[in-house]
Amino acid sequence: MVTRLRPESLAELRDAVRDGPSRLLITGAGTAAGWGGTPAPHDAVLDVTGLNAVLAYQPSDLTVTVQAGLPLAALQDVLAKKGQQVALDAGRIARGATVGGLLATADGGPARHTYGTLRDCVIGVTTVLADGTVARSGGRVIKNVAGYDLAKLFHGSLGTLGVIAEVTLRLHPLAEASCTVAAACTPERSLELAHRMMRDALEPVALEWYDGRLLARFDGTASGVTRRARATGFEEADPSVWQEVADVSLGGPGDTVFRIGTLPGLWPWVAARVRARTASPPVLSSSLGAGVHTVRLGNTTASSFDRLREDIAGRGGGTVVLRRGIEVPAWGPPPASVAVMRAVKQRFDPSDRFGAGRFTPWF
Amino acid sequence: MDACVIRDFVAVLGRDNVLTEPTELRTYECDGLTGYRVVPALVALPGSAAEVAATVKVCARHGIPFVARGAGTGLSGGALPVADGVVICLQRLRRVLEVDPMNRRAVVEPGVTNREISRAAAPYGLYYAPDPSSQQVCTIGGNVAENSGGAHCLKYGFTVHHVLAADVVLADGTVTTLGGDSPQQPGYDLLGAFIGSEGTLGVVTRVVVRLLPKPATVSTVVADFATVAAAGDTVTSVIAAGIVPAAVEMLDNLTIQAVEAAVAAGYTADAAAALVIELDGPDDEVTEQFGQVLELCRRHGSTNLRVAGDPAERELIWRGRKAAFAAAGRLSPDYIVQDGVVPRGRLGEVLVRIAGMADAAGLRVANVFHAGDGNLHPLVLYNRAAGELERAERLSTAIAELCVELGGSLSGEHGIGTDKACSMPAMFTQDDLDTMQRLRAAFDPEGLCNPGKIFPTPRLCGERPGPYRPHPLEVAGVIDRW
Ligand SMILES: Cc1cc2nc3c(=O)[nH]c(=O)nc-3n(C[C@H](O)[C@H](O)[C@H](O)COP(=O)(O)OP(=O)(O)OC[C@H]3O[C@@H](n4cnc5c(N)ncnc54)[C@H](O)[C@@H]3O)c2cc1C
């Protein structure tokens, strides 16, 4: 069995990295264990869930500092008591995903339409590098441009650059009221409807096509959300649908799940391509403002998946695999910046201690 | 510079776009931080992304350091030339390449001004959100380098939240694209790390920005207060009510006087402090929350609430606020603009301490700041002719370092550049800075791209960047290293 290291403080974490065995697989709650490439053999699992404290919470500053192993759901409970939230609603949160894990995976949910992902909320990090260096960047204030913003680098790093130990986040107030509406439509039509809603400055906080319907959520005051919801001409819908949308990213045994980023306007094309390349009907969702599409396939072949990914790359789109029910390389054609990514990896983790295999075959 | 090296630049750019005459070069010797001046050896004026790449290739081949330059409005000496180096001026790359209303984005060259983007987007009911006060002249390339903010960044965020992709010429002359068509990109967020790197990681030649629909309603008020503390408490209560204003700006009495003398924007000249609060968004929300804001202002003793009745009046209020730096010239022959940040809850405390430090230094400090996010712009007033420069600089540095001591930052938006590099050890340990240098080395192993900025060097700072000192937050017991 592989050794499991479970430090409970920053000092223990640093020691575990500095004095521990060579090849480490960093893990939080394990809710994204299947993201990216299959990890190469490693000497120990470095479990960060022992670092789970709220270190500082200043409601009046709209900031909170936590240890990275804290489940986001637990943090949301603390913040909700003060009417605040971390504006992130990824599907994994309900399954116990940690703050550090959500940052390292660049995960997001429907609220990305307005709030983006943790990259847009993180204002400071403390990290432990492969040689045991403890490094901070950013700070604890919302506005800060001193030094490089290394937190961004760790967004999407999948545990390959260093261990995220502490994170400071910018918070948002919880809305007084919320209203969800839906209209059945094709992907083509959804683009027009979404465009009109944005043009009319209705400011939906989330805007997704899912399972044959365009969904919009409005956050605000009681009277405001009702009026805006009505202005769409859509039907009111059960808000539990948002969890379903977020859950497209999870999938079950045998499923292949991936996320695609393209120009928002390519969504109908993406939907058509996915359908054309798969045998059984896929589960699809698309964040129409951002051009982020999440796809779950129950039944596909390696060759049709590969071809689909190449189609998408041909239109400038990038793909991240969240779950593989079939044997395919984790990554498709690399983006132009892959050489810089390699150089960054080389400088931060020259002996490849962290997360070997996650970015195979890119590096 | 060696004649055959100059020939290489001329071969790439043509004679007219290579400046080597001392009188021409002097135009580029400083940015908005005029206290630092260095005349470069050569100024390159490329007219296309390909010419930028070719220029950088020549620099790389000869091992010549280079500094990108936009409009030169930077306030931290970021675009300060390197002696014997090249300045690459992006002012000729000023085309808006595309406005795509369906996908709500614009593609622009780096020399396009911030304001020009919103102007190009306006026919579609869209705009580019970050709005630095210098937006009439500053370039999007400079904004990307500085991660510039503006009065409205409390609600809307900074440049980093509004840029989707950038083409970058790396220090060896190769071209790459950071980011892409969607915020969803595989791998490390290199774009996010690049934005705010102050021109030290590469030269931006093309930027894709996100555009937002114009909000349905905008409401703006100027409220006067009898004390700065009352104004500060008002902001706290607004945030506590769950309201995130589009903008909250505070001006102290000295600044109000200067602004009134300069623009006559209708601020009350004898108020101790004024708040400009702006809400935007959907009608119902803005109306209801604006009522709450007015009520909170009254409750904190504001007796004079001036609500902008129309866009022209709003424009005038903002013109007053945005003229604050320039207006400082009416208070004093010379001034330094400071840019520290404190946690918002400590605004009152920091202002009292700044006043005490100013008294001790025998200088006046006017304050204007983004109160919503604790970003201060103390204006240190001094008279160079009376030999006050050094004292003023010392006071200004002490204010920035005080902000760090209170749990904040050396800079909220103007950058570290040359100006504050020597203060970086007050905020970061040697390990922190060395880790940042790993990123720099990944992008630019030879260190040719805007060297000498951000990081303290013995040459710039003397012996100051010494061994590790405990982080101020550790001393204060706020954070714990181990
Ligand atoms: C009156 C006044 C008000 C201001 N108000 C604000 C404000 O409200 N908010 C704010 O954030 N700032 C403000 N600033 C500061 C300044 O305007 C911003 O930092 C701006 O982004 C600088 O743009 P620029 O084109 O003038 O860049 P420059 O000053 O020319 O350069 C700034 C930095 O960017 C780098 N750079 C420039 N172009 C490129 C490129 N294409 N690729 C790579 N690096 C590049 C330079 O090397 C340098 O390090 C203000 C300045 C003034 C004078």
Automatic annotation (TrEMBL), chain A:
It comes from the Bacteria. The keyword Flavoprotein applies. Keywords: FAD, Flavoprotein. GO terms for molecular function: catalytic activity; FAD binding. It holds the Pfam family FAD_binding_4. Gene3D superfamilies: 3.30.465.10. Residues 1-174 form the FAD-binding PCMH-type domain. This is FAD-binding PCMH-type domain-containing protein. It comes from Streptomyces viridochromogenes.
